[in-house]
Design goal:
The protein is mainly alpha-helical. It has 20 helices and two strands.
Length: 530
């Protein structure tokens, strides 16, 4: 599964033995310094937010290129550079079904959801967060939708941020040979600092830069290794039989339909991911959405194809790795940094190492902004203060919310083996199941009402938790979970049951008000400003 295969950090930190000499590590440090300078140059340029909409949504001013690259960079993270190549290296292209699902999910999200969600959030009282959108969409005066959504967001994404703090700590420790806690403090402080200063527009612009760096690294490195090995024919000769067959495993056994469904189902999660949907909401003009979608899909095609290629070439270039997730780093090390490296240009190796670090940071900053938006706008601004606070006051609440979230996440991250990565996998399934169905139905079905929305959110979240954690199936070894018994990814039943529950409860309760239905009709037409 996608997020579960993100990175086995304890395995990597214990088994990776970088061969780089000190002179070349100096070039890595030089590349990192260049990266840090570039980050703060971008952040200081876009740091002036006069109100909460500016801080959390960039005043809806993203260009097509920035929206596309930042959406994909904030999604893919280090999984693209380490998790997927490692999964392919370990068992072959049978794991590429995940990439197929991600590509389909990305395309559907951009071309079926992006334009409508941007338009609808403007119509519904200019909503700047997804909890705010759901409350305004259904005119829920009880705040039940906003509170339930905000709680799920705050819990899931605080843990999400913790996992990426762990990623930064282990990666920095691994590359530079410093103690984990020191590396964790340095990495976390860096991300919190530029997110605190800049806000959404700075983070999105920075993610454009980081997305470009990620794409360069994932394309350039395997092509260099492929050329060194004498082309595809020589690589193919060194690959185990059946390795390139998406319908068989590395041992030649057929891939089950459930495995294919589970892999492709990762694409369903996109419909409920607030950090991605926020990019759609922030695009400057509606007519830019299609162009952004095309750019994003092309980015994803290249990124996923070459990530799979890294795993395929890697099994021929460096066979027998104990930690498959390290294959990309090992390729970088042996190509640019180790003594006797293939390419006498260590600065390029440094830049590709920095690309992995930036991949981690590009998701961590977006997740912190999501939680900050929930705390500052939805909980503090709308419920505690009941709309009395405005302007720069709420901007500072948002900034200090980031610090608070980071401190909690840091506490989790101090113990990297504490099961955080498993919780991240559950967060992806939980968010996708809880919010994906209602986000889709809210923009495509006029009849859906607040009761159906609440039922769907609760059903999706509880289904995922039950599927993964509650032992219900009796086996010879004792009771096991439905996840273990079936091998079916929790997002499949969670998303399906949530979708069905929304429809059933909606049809059993009264229609939404005329005002809600009028908003829906308005959302079907382009806005005058666009």
């Amino acid at each position: 599964m996608r997020r579960e295969s993100l990175i086995s950090f304890e395995l990597i930190s214990g088994s990776l033995n970088m061969e780089s000499n000190m002179e070349n590590i100096t070039w890595v440090i030089a590349a990192l310094i260049i990266y840090v300078i570039a980050v703060f140059a971008i952040v200081t340029r876009y740091r002036s937010a006069k109100n909460l909409q500016g801080y959390l949504l960039g005043d809806r001013s993203l260009s097509p290129w920035v929206a596309a690259f930042s959406a994909q960079a904030s999604d893919m993270s280090s999984w693209l550079l380490m998790g997927l190549p490692g999964a392919i290296y370990a068992v072959g292209t049978s794991n590429a079904w995940i990439a197929v699902g991600l590509l389909i999910g990305t395309a559907c999200n951009w071309f079926l959801v992006a334009k409508r969600i941007r338009r609808y959030t403007i119509i519904t009282n200019n909503s700047i967060t997804l909890p705010g959108y759901l409350e305004n969409r259904f005119r829920d005066k009880s705040h039940a939708l906003k509170i339930s959504t905000a709680v799920f967001f705050a819990v899931f994404f605080t843990v999400y941020v913790a996992s990426f703090f762990v990623a930064m700590g282990v990666l920095i420790s691994m590359v530079f040979g410093i103690e984990y806690m020191t590396a964790l403090i340095l990495g976390a402080t860096f991300v919190v600092a530029y997110t605190f200063i800049g806000g959404f527009l700075a983070v999105s612009t920075l993610d454009f830069f980081q997305g470009s760096l990620m794409l360069f690294a994932i394309i350039f490195v395997p092509l260099v290794v492929l050329a060194y090995m004498g082309g595809w024919t020589n690589v193919a000769d060194a690959i185990p039989a059946g390795y390139l067959n998406m319908f068989t495993g590395a041992d030649g056994s057929p891939v089950s339909p459930i495995a294919v469904i589970s892999g492709m189902a990762w694409g369903l999660g996109y419909f409920g991911m607030p950090h991605i949907l926020a990019r759609y909401m922030a695009i400057k003009k509606e007519r830019y959405v299609h162009k952004s979608g095309v750019i994003a899909v092309v980015w994803v095609i290249f990124a996923l194809f070459f990530a799979v290629l890294v795993g395929i070439i890697g099994i021929a270039f460096i066979p027998g790795l104990a930690a498959p997730e390290t294959i990309f780093i090992q390729m970088i090390d042996r190509t640019f940094l180790a003594q006797g490296a293939l390419v006498a240009f260590p600065l390029l190796g440094g830049l590709t190492i920095v690309a992995i670090m930036s991949a981690v940071k590009s998701t961590a900053d977006s997740q912190m902004l999501v939680v900050s938006s929930v705390i500052s706008s939805d909980i503090y601004g709308d419920i505690i203060r009941k709309g009395k606070s405005a302007g720069r006051h709420l901007v500072w609440v948002g900034r200090f919310s980031i610090v608070a979230v980071a401190l909690v996440a840091f506490t989790f991250a101090t113990s990297p083996g504490a099961g955080i990565m498993v919780l991240v996998a559950i967060a992806w399934a939980g968010l996708g199941s809880s919010f994906g169905p209602i986000m889709l139905l809210s923009i495509y079905w006029k009849r859906v009402n607040v009761q159906g929305a609440l039922a769907g959110i609760i059903t999706g979240g509880l289904t995922v938790i039950t599927w993964v954690y509650v032992p219900l199936v009796s086996t010879a070894a004792g009771l096991v979970t439905l996840n273990a018994a079936t091998g079916l990814f929790a997002l499949v039943p969670g998303f399906t049951l949530s979708f069905i529950m929304i429809i059933i409860v909606t049809l059993l309760t009264k229609e939404p008000s005329k005002e809600v239905q009028a908003d829906f009709e308005t959302s079907l037409k382009p806005l005058a400003e666009d």
